[in-house]
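User: Earlier you gave me the apo prediction for this protein. Now I'd like the version with zinc ion bound, so I can compare the two side by side. Same sequence as before, with the ligand SMILES added.
Assistant: Got it. Here's the input I'm using:
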Amino acid sequence: MSPSLSRLILSVVFLASVGLVLFLTAMFSFEVLHLRDPEAATLMLMTSATYLIMGWLGIWRGAVKWTPWRGTAVVVSVGVSLLVAVLPGALVQIVMDTTAAMFVTACSWALLWLASTAVIWRETKTERIERLKLLGINAVICPNCGYNLTGMTTTTCPECGGQYTLDQLYAQLTKVDTQVDQL
Ligand SMILES: [Zn+2]
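And here is the structure of the complex with zinc ion:
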């Protein structure tokens, strides 16, 4: 099994475990600390959010090509996601109570932040070319999206649907070699 597939399975199990952490923190808040809302909800959500961030970074850290830009963007996205997530929370506040609004905000934040990491961590075309070159692959790359077309029996890119002639792909191959040499 490839490390990526292993990480995907781990991610599914991990995301399911966030619900368990939420439940256990709720038990602890109400039964041991005897907290009431919204203090209990705050503790539950803060604990679960910390668990989510640490676990997610733990699983995917090794698969990401870290640059100063990516490191900063991941930190900033925590705050930006929260700002956006306040909107659905505010709508719920109108018809329900503060605790319900907090949970909607927290769930929206989690979804937004997880989605933002997928965008921020995605490798650029140049990084993909560099990685393939490091692997010693003389790759035929899609001129539009950078997908590796090596070994394909058609000249249609399965990633973006782009259609090319052999001439165009050959021209791209030459271009890739030049680009890689410039790195
Ligand atoms: Zn493509």
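For your comparison, keep in mind: The chain has six helices and no strands.
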